[in-house]
Write a structure and sequence with these properties.
heterotrimer; A mainly alpha (305); B alpha+beta (508); C mainly alpha (326); A: 305 residues; mainly alpha; MetI-like fold; 10 helices; 67% helix; C: 326 residues; 2 domains
Chain lengths: 305, 508, 326
């Protein structure tokens, strides 16, 4: 299914003690080397790299064909040297179409992750640092959002706002806000009571200085990990929504829409299903593994493979 | 190279799963009892009250149970159904119907003029909210003339009433059902079949009506099943669990095996680019003519439905079909388009926005893309805005668009099609985007003449006016299909897409 | 009887229940608001552009019929009140009580969810344990392979591929026949439920597998395990009583979270495999602006999700006393 959620070992549930969370640090020269050294990280970087390269090729107009160009004489052609991934039933080159689809998916995924990340992190920091009623309110709102299955939430919002890139991004991003809230709140909460922070307060550092200099750097680590995981999920959610017919409308190419269209053709032309699926899988698996790799690299104690 | 854990074993797992599937496939699908014919459709029956149905499969399903006063034959000419003949009098303001005798409802009551009165009054009752009541808007009184005749009194001559009476929304109902208020739960009609069961989103089943006035029904049971996508319908046809598939996608029907007979008819709807001609650049006739000449409608047909359909003019089918050739440009003529733009005073072209809704019409986007590139060749820029179905409908009803790719109902009677848009006091005058006294005169006259020759002349004038003034841009009418397995004989899909020929079919 | 440990547990449960109720109320309000944002209403949804043909009198009759005229706040509270007494309203499009529609659709989704969860747990815990106990060996490789498929391949791709493969190559398509309930035709029912459940279970299993493997690995590195092994306790006892039991908390937690995604996944799978469950009903209802149905099903899903997680918390609290309390 790959509509996965956060790994509970890094995302504390609000009622459980935060002892199980780890502080992840992004700074330090060995970070990038550690990322590459980790098996997941290496794999993730390669796959994400392929995805970004594909997007770049499409944006720069370097794709072999104009994605929307219809060559009806060559419709439903099998993969060949002319058309690396074959053509669809309008004669459009699937390779170029898929690359365009990746660009659209990334656009929406990045927007959605930005929405979720910014609002979620702010909420998490506020909840963790300020505590008290603010924290309760934020966590309550977060729970309410989390209780509605994310796909249903996205479905309802996109139907309300209409299909479109910004609307899809909003619908998808909203479902991930609670996860950012929880994941960011955990280290903030544990650090707030840490000795060195107390020491700073005693010494008279302003709240802002404590927040920015001492607490935030630890938070960047979890944010980075969750961002990668959120990107994976957003690409998947966008594809699922467009599979249900709620994605950005034609002529915008959309990987999920391509899979949905292929369901009537895949029996006779397997490449119409394989091409967009491959693109989705590479991107999702890539960002998932990148997230794992970031977690491994940022946590010097981790020994996971 | 990075060694990725588990990939080769993932491949082994997939192969293993296939093996299991192959084993399971040994337990093949059950076959329906040979006395039932199963139709499959992607949408499902939504309502059982014939007066308020709007979904096309509802019409097809309920037409197996209900009859109307008049109906269409295979050439889309009016022909008797429950009315055996009719005549106009009083300057066209009275229509007298002679009714069929010895027709019984499945609840035991007999069909008489009382049923006609009750059924049509129910249609006109605002509480029923029958959108097709506009077909008989000109009917002021329904008067029985003995047991087997009825008179309709009209406020003005209106020949289109006859066409309206072919609609299932004006079906003949049992007075007992109307009084009991059970129409939305238990259909009771005079047709070849009687209602058995309805499972929403799943299936609709009917049994043969032994007392049918049309004779013996040879297929004892008919089921209309909902299968949400056409590839699955194709699979079911091949597996033998469905006998007749009602389909719309040529890329699937083309790939069905030869043993399955694929029948095709033109859909009862047409695609057009509707224009708001009252303001903006589109208010200028020459700009619209430029667009009409820049279009390559055959190419639009090819890009959106793989050529499976016909380029059409304002009247797509029936006895008064308009010649599709535009009065102005039979085929794409860019130089002519540019000269029209000159005459319009904007030789550099102009810009406007057209809305589509892939929710309502999956091909609307492909049509828009094709039209966009054709107009560009003449220097006209068309922006495309795709909306969700309800947003499109709201904007459409309010006329809040410059162009709209629409799929409108087609009818053999052009007045039925266009009276609602362009006649005086038209219900859909706002979305129509155009009005003129000349057009109103043509329409009114076309509806009041009573001889076929006079009607043909008027409708031709209507067609010519609409194309010569490029009121809208008419595009095409697509095909719809019925895929019939080889063991069903004698079923044919008529232009009205009714399923009733199954009543006299045989299954081997 | 009510010693302090039990009292703390009871208080936790009470507190969680209250907060659950507040959460559900919040969900109801959000769903209600979103639905009111949908452009158009049941009238345009059912009549389309022909809604323009209605006369004002007809339009007024329909507004009254669908109950669209009342102010939103009043609609919300009357719906809420009626729901508590079991009356979930009447479906605008099917003209049947919503509770009837839900009664017909719920068993399908329930069976699908249970079978998927069970299969997912079997795959997830099974391969997760194998992977943790013998990392790097064949069992681990297989497990990791399944995890890659489960995490990376979307449900709809897997489902579409499976359906296409079975129907076009084997002409095997159990879903083309009407859905058979478990009691009316068990063999057909199993065939119809097995494949969609398989598709869902791979995704669930992948997440549970990673959690299990990581948790067990973490536990196995702790001192008490080395002590147990050193003491000569049998391997099987060490595995299950010590490793597994101590890794249970994250496994159970993850399973609870997966249920939320499972409920969303049924929406897609029911479309592909043509199952007349709650997911399909929901998608259809959203398209038809059938507010009573959408509200009721969303509340049902949210309630199920929240209750399951409440149960998960209780179970975790029972298993591991350290995780009790805030």
């Amino acid at each position: 299914m790959a509509i996965t959620g956060p790994d509970p070992l890094t995302a504390a549930r609000p009622d459980q003690p935060v002892a199980k969370t780890r502080r992840l640090r992004l700074s330090g020269g060995g970070f990038w080397a550690a990322l590459w050294a980790s098996r997941s990280g290496k794999f993730g970087i390669v796959l994400v790299g392929i995805t970004l390269l594909g997007a770049l090729v499409s944006i720069l107009g370097l794709a072999p064909y104009d994605p929307q160009h219809q060559d009806l004489a060559a419709n439903l052609a099998a993969p060949s040297s002319d058309h690396w991934l074959g053509t669809d039933n309008f004669g459009r080159d699937l390779f170029s179409l898929v690359l365009e689809g990746i660009v659209v998916s990334l656009e929406i995924a990045v927007l959605a992750t930005l929405i979720a990340g910014v609002f979620g992190s702010l909420g998490g920091i506020a909840a963790g640092y300020l505590g008290g009623t603010t924290s309760t309110l934020i966590m309550r709102a977060s729970d309410i959002l989390f209780a509605i299955p994310a796909i249903l939430l996205a479905l309802a919002i996109v139907t309300a706002l209409g299909p479109g890139i910004l609307d899809s991004a909003l619908a998808i991003g909203i479902g991930w806000i609670p996860i950012f809230v929880r994941v960011v709140r955990a280290p903030v909460l544990s650090l707030r009571n840490a000795d060195f922070v107390r020491a700073g307060q005693v010494l008279g550092f302003s709240r802002r200085r404590v927040l920015f200099r001492h607490i935030l750097p630890s938070v960047y680590g979890v944010i980075a990990v969750q961002t990668s995981l959120a990107l994976a999920w957003a690409i998947l959610a966008e594809a699922s929504l467009s599979f249900l017919g709620l994605g950005p409308p034609p002529p915008t190419a959309s990987l999920g829409q391509m899979v949905s269209d292929s369901s009537s053709l895949a029996g006779i032309a397997w490449w119409t299903l394989a091409a967009p699926s491959l693109a989705i899988i590479i991107a999702v698996v890539g960002f998932n593994y990148l997230g794992d790799g970031l977690r491994d690299a940022a946590d010097p104690r981790s020994r996971r493979s | 190279m990075v060694r990725v854990p588990g990939f080769r074993t993932a491949a082994v797992a997939v192969v293993g799963a296939c093996a299991i599937a192959a084993f399971a496939a040994g337990a093949s699908a059950h076959n329906a009892a040979s006395s039932t014919v199963v139709f499959a459709n992607t949408s499902s029956v939504q309502k059982l009250d014939p007066d308020v149905v709007t979904n096309f499969v509802d019409f097809q399903a309920l037409h197996l149970i209900y009859d109307t006063l008049v109906t269409y034959n295979d050439k889309l000419q009016l022909t008797p159904d429950l009315a055996t003949s009719w005549s106009f009098s009083n300057g066209g303001k009275t229509i007298t119907f002679q009714l069929r005798k010895n027709v019984n409802f499945t609840d035991g009551t007999t069909f008489t003029s009382a049923n006609v009165v009750a059924s049509l009054e129910r249609v006109k009752d605002p509480k029923t909210a029958d959108a097709a009541s506009s077909f008989i808007a000109s009917v002021t009184k329904i008067v029985p003339d003995g047991t087997y005749a009825v008179k309709l009194l009209l406020s003005h001559p209106d020949a289109s009433v006859l066409n309206g009476l072919t609609s299932l929304n004006l079906a003949m109902l049992s007075t007992k059902s109307i009084a009991a208020g059970t129409l939305s739960k238990t259909p009771v009609g005079t047709g070849p079949y009687q209602f058995v069961s309805w499972v929403p989103n799943n299936s609709f089943t009917v049994n043969a009506n032994p007392g049918w006035w049309g004779g013996k029904v040879t297929v004892p049971q008919v089921e209309i099943k909902t299968i949400p996508n056409e590839q699955s319908i194709a699979s079911a046809l091949q597996a033998g669990t469905v006998q007749i598939g009602l389909m719309t996608q040529p890329q699937i029907t083309e790939h069905l095996p030869g043993s399955i007979d694929v029948q095709k008819v033109l859909d009862l709807s047409y695609r057009a680019l509707m224009l708001q001609d009252r303001t903006g650049p589109l208010a200028n006739l020459y700009n619209r003519l430029a667009m009409a000449c820049a279009l390559n409608r055959q190419s639009v047909l090819t890009s959106s439905v793989l050529g499976q359909g016909k380029v059409i003019g304002p009247v797509p089918l029936g006895p008064y079909t308009s010649s599709p050739i535009s009065a102005v440009c039979p085929t794409q003529n860019i130089p002519m388009a540019k000269s029209y733009l000159q005459k319009a005073g904007n030789p550099g072209g102009f810009t406007f926005t057209a809305m589509t809704s892939t929710d309502l019409d999956a091909t609307s986007s492909a049509q828009a893309i094709a039209v966009q590139s054709q107009l560009k060749q003449a220097g006209i820029t068309m922006n495309i805005s795709n909306l969700a179905s309800n947003a499109y409908i709201q904007d459409w009803l309010k006329g809040k668009f410059q162009g709209a790719f629409a799929e409108n109902d087609a009818d053999p009677n052009p007045y039925t099609m266009y009276g609602r848009y362009f006649a005086p006091g038209a219900n859909l005058g706002v979305p129509s985007g155009y009005s003129s006294a000349a057009l109103q005169r043509i329409l009114t006259k076309s509806d009041s003449v009573t001889t076929p020759a006079a009607a043909a002349a008027q409708f031709k004038a209507l067609s010519t006016y609409l194309t010569a003034n490029a009121v809208w841009l008419w595009l095409f009418d697509g095909y719809v299909y019925a895929a019939v397995t080889s063991n069903v004989h004698g079923f044919s899909l008529p232009p009205t897409r009714e399923l009733n020929s199954i009543a006299k079919a045989t299954v081997s | 009887m009510f010693d302090s440990r039990n009292r703390a547990l009871a208080l936790t449960i009470v507190r969680r229940t209250v907060s659950t109720l507040i959460t559900l109320l919040g969900v109801a309000i959000i769903v209600f608001v979103i639905l009111r944002l949908l452009p158009g209403d049941a009238i345009t949804a059912s009549l389309g552009v022909n809604a323009g043909l209605l006369s004002p009198a007809q339009h007024a009759a329909l507004v009254h019929f669908y109950g669209l005229g009342k102010p939103p706040v009043q609609q919300f509270f009357s719906w809420l009140g009626a729901s508590f007494s079991g009356n979930l309203g009447v479906s605008l499009s099917a003209q049947q009580p919503v509770s009837t529609l839900i009664d017909q659709a719920a068993p399908v989704t329930l069976e699908l969810s249970i079978v998927s969860l069970v299969l997912g747990l079997l795959i997830g815990v099974g391969f997760g344990m194998i992977g943790a106990l013998k990392p790097g060996k064949v069992g681990d490789e297989v497990g990791q392979g399944i995890a890659v498929v489960g995490l990376g391949v979307p449900v709809f791709v897997l489902g579409t591929a499976l359906v296409t493969f079975l129907s076009s190559h084997f002409h095997y398509f159990p879903s083309s026949e009407p859905y058979a309930s478990l009691f009316s035709d068990p063999w057909l029912n199993i065939q119809q439920i097995f494949f969609p459940s398989l598709v869902l279970s791979i995704g669930i299993g992948a997440a549970i597998m990673r959690t299990t493997r990581a948790a067990v690995l973490e536990v196995s590195s702790q001192n008490f395990v080395r002590t147990a092994r050193g003491k000569g306790i049998k391997a099987r006892v060490v595995t299950w009583r010590h490793l597994f039991r101590n890794a249970l908390v994250p496994i159970v937690t993850m399973s609870g979270i997966q249920l939320g995604y499972l409920l969303g996944g049924t929406v897609i799978v029911e479309q592909i495999f043509i199952l007349p469950g709650l997911g399909r009903l929901l998608v259809t209802a959203i398209n038809e602006r059938d507010f009573p149905v959408v509200q009721s099903i969303t509340m049902l899903f949210a309630t199920a999700f929240v209750l399951v997680n409440l149960g998960v918390d209780v179970i975790c609290a029972l298993i591991d006393p350290r995780s009790r309390g805030r």
